[in-house]
Write a structure and sequence with these properties.
Rossmann fold; globular; two-stranded antiparallel sheet; 5 helices; eight-stranded mixed beta sheet; alpha/beta
């Protein structure tokens, strides 16, 4: 059932298996709070799943922040929306009794970009992230201290939207901030591929929170 919290329509599915980190599921442009729930269960069976809907509409399609053109972001809006989403996550952790471990974001496209922005602008909100087809959302100055936060980037080998250079730039930015970053090159374009599930499940199965995020 979709409910409201801090202005975000969202779905929450409680954990059925103890000891798993909660997942924060962040859809791509045009998605909803329902889109990534099945993926989350396949990636980490039994984990709690929190899935909000983006509050910005682009030609009627939900997004998490505004863009001015393909790959050109409204940075003021991005900063504001990132803080709003981080506040939602913080309150949801209390509301749903998610425990002391910050959630791991699973973001696709626009959802991956705002997950990366949360890592950069609100360190501590996320315990780690699986970023599927992300690009650099912004470059904060100074960089945050991410101190070993695990990040998996799934980049498409034939992605017409995100170039390999953009994927590598995000990885380098997060590494400079101290995150532990791995890139896997997925055979395919911008859409989700079966290999994303394999790589993501492997990342989450071996996920260990950074000591600074516990």
């Amino acid at each position: 059932m979709t409910t409201q919290l801090r202005g975000f329509s969202h779905r929450f599915v409680p954990a059925t298996r103890p000891g798993q980190p909660p997942l924060l599921l962040l859809h791509g442009t045009g998605g909803t709070e329902d889109d990534l729930l099945p993926l989350g269960e396949r990636l980490l069976p039994g984990a709690a799943r929190l899935s909000p809907r983006g509050r910005v509409l682009e030609h009627g399609m939900p997004r998490f922040f505004r863009r001015l053109a393909e790959g050109v972001f409204d940075l003021d809006d991005l900063r504001q929306r990132t803080i709003e989403l981080a506040d939602f996550v913080d309150e949801a952790r209390v509301t749903y009794n998610l425990g002391p471990v910050p959630p791991v974001a699973v973001g696709f496209s626009n959802g991956a970009n705002i997950a990366a922005a949360m890592l950069l602008l609100r360190p501590g909100t996320l315990g780690g992230a699986l970023l599927i087809r992300p690009m650099v959302p912004l470059v904060p100055d100074p960089l945050p201290a991410l101190a070993g936060v695990p990040v998996q980037i799934n980049a498409g080998t034939a992605d017409p939207i995100v170039t390999p250079a953009q994927s590598e730039a995000l990885a380098e930015l997060l590494r400079r901030a101290g995150a532990t970053v791995t890139i896997d090159w997925i055979r395919g374009g911008h859409g989700l591929a079966p290999q994303d599930l394999d790589v993501g499940a492997r990342f989450l199965a071996g996920w260990v929170p950074a000591s600074s995020s516990s």
